[in-house]
Fold:
Amino acid sequence: MAKGLSRKQEQPKTVKLRVPRGRKVAKALSPEPVQQRVERSGERIRKQEQQKTVNLGVPRDRKASKVSSREQVQENAGRWRRQGQRIGYTSGVFDLLHAGHLDYLAEARRHCDRLVVGVNSDRSVRANKGPSRPIVPEAERAALVAGLKPVDAVFIFDELNNNANIEILKPQLYIKAGDYDAARLSSAPLVRAYGGEVLLIPVKHAVSTSERIETVIARCHARAERLPAGEPRPAIFLDRDGVICEEVDFLHEPEKLRLTPHCAQGLKLLLESRYRLVVVTNQAGIGLGYYTHEDFFSVNRAMFRALKDDGIFFDRIYYCPHNEADNCRCRKPRPGMLERALEELPILAAGSWIIGDRESDIEAGAALGFPGVRINRTPEPSRARLRAGNLLEAARAILDLR
Ligand SMILES: [Mg+2]
Ligand SMILES: [Zn+2]
Structure:
């Protein structure tokens, strides 16, 4: 990258303005060996890259004054206190910021001169709310909260409660959102011990981040249901792991995907015979927190890539992200995913089959009266109508019975 170009394009304006003119000139005049100059420019680009990832579009010095370490905030709070200012402290996750957050912080700020906000680290959010949260990483959540007018200082903390924060900051006012009474707050005695007060601000906004997430999921489903319908045809319901791709414990890395032997040939034969292909797969690893929905999608994309040259496409992929303990309707051997497919896709129930490598696949089909093909080399007893060594054998066996 050209030296002049990179300076112009990547250096934040606030920094550029503060570069003293004299230094720039002196640098340009100093005779430097070429190699050294190249290294320096590389170093500068690296520094700029680092700045970019931390900056998040917030001008550097404004951000530095608002988001900092707990120790830095403690220092500032001490100064404010000596100036006779009343410090309020509150904390939260602030994942997917909404108007309720803003109302709450504005109300909190009305009770103090300086509002300090602790933002839960990603690690502590996962510990509190499960592996699918937060949606927004801690640095971004902190930067967004710092961008709100009522907020004077922000730090990120790792503990699961506020005891350490209160001990360190000793705010005159400890502010909590919620309906629970101050007496029951575990940290209340801690605050009162140094003469502080606890203030509870009732939550006015009904919408929570969790509800927002559920709305997004529901709308995605609604969109999928509006897809144009085709002519009704029998379907082959396919398990994914152990049938289309080789069974790997909790498969979630796309590079570990391997198609089973003759998989593409078998699927091609079924498509040419005018079956709809519908994948129904249990993905308990999501519910257990071993991997994310996004990991699951990335394995699917690897599967599409591997099958694309053979012209293979699937009508729909249904997956159950729950684990056994969730007791959902979709986890096989329960037939919830197949029922949904029958509601949402133009499928002729008569002539449809399920192909699986486990008895739970066969049972999910049997619950709705679909015959099954069990792909498995171990000869354990099965309710399956047919047995096969791989997908091609399964496809041929199904077509033989038509
Ligand atoms: Mg399987
Ligand atoms: Zn489920």
Summary: Residues 3-55 form one domain. Residues 320, 322, 328, 330-331 surround zinc ion (ligand 2) (CB under 6 Å). Confidence is low (pLDDT under 50) at residues 1-42, 48-63. The chain has three domains: 3-55, 64-210, 228-400.
